[in-house]
Amino acid sequence: MLFDQITFVIQGPITPSITSTSVRRLRSIFPGCQIIVSTWEGENTQDIEADLIIYNKDPGSTIFVYSKRNDAIPVNINRQIVSTVSGLRHVKTKFAAKLRADNILNKRRVLEIFEQFPLRKEGYAVLNNRLVCSNYFAKEFERGLSVPFFFSDFFQFGEVEDLLKVWDCDLYSDYDFKSTLSGKKQHKYYPNDSVNVEQKIWSNAARKLYPYELKDEHGDHFARQQSYNFMINNLIIVDGDELGLDVPQRLRHSNSYPYDFFTFQRWKWLYENEFLKTKNTPLNFKFFWYLSLIIKTIRKGVRLKLRKTLTPIFIKVRE
Fold this sequence. Notes:
The protein is an alpha/beta fold. The protein has one domain. About 35% of the residues lie in helices and about 20% in strands. It is built from 9 helices and 14 strands. It has a 7-stranded mixed beta sheet with strand order 3-2-1-6-11-8-13, sandwiched between helices. Helix 2 runs antiparallel to helix 4.
């Protein structure tokens, strides 16, 4: 793949010294590439040497959840959508990468990985081709149970058309606080566990496979099944270090025990189970992964599953 076929869309608020370094690093590693910075009105871009800088009107944060103290918990889902889509719509090349303005890409590894896994099942192929995604906050498990569509929103690389299928969607509305639920962690589908921003983005992208609104963080069996089908056939999840993706320290996490996050090794294991006769996943990785699954299921998963089963019954009895 030629570098001049690629556009990098750097989105979000400008991070002093980091965003400008990110642009310079991309120029060095991918000579001839195009760089678009999609940020907010009023941002200081004086030292940003991009091909195009877009100044969007900030849509503000979005409120999906109120805490037990009745405090609104703001998230930036609409900000991500606006800045990402605005940048992608100006892309003229076939391929693009979506990159946060506080991240730096230090390797070309993504280009090699993009072409290494061609096998797909057409019935589950929602996108034209796979997107290479980082594994930062790509969760497979939460509190001992599997969670569907919880993939990373930090970095994606692939065809522009596919990136727009993920990001070009309607903006989300705020949840209205209900005084009758004061003192409880409330949201649209209380008493279920609230759905995360990443799950909203990716379940919407996978709506051809799961045409329902996700109402609980852990979903149902069909949601979890379709989440795996979507991921294996439309994404390649890669460790941030493997990609050379540098993120702020507060956003880093462990890829080892208890294996709550997807890793490149885990994704390749699922890929070979689905498509290959030859099995290359190390046995020690499989052993510790399964051991971890047993431990977290016993420690947290069983109790959480019981709570999810009994809570609707208790509420109905009270009524």
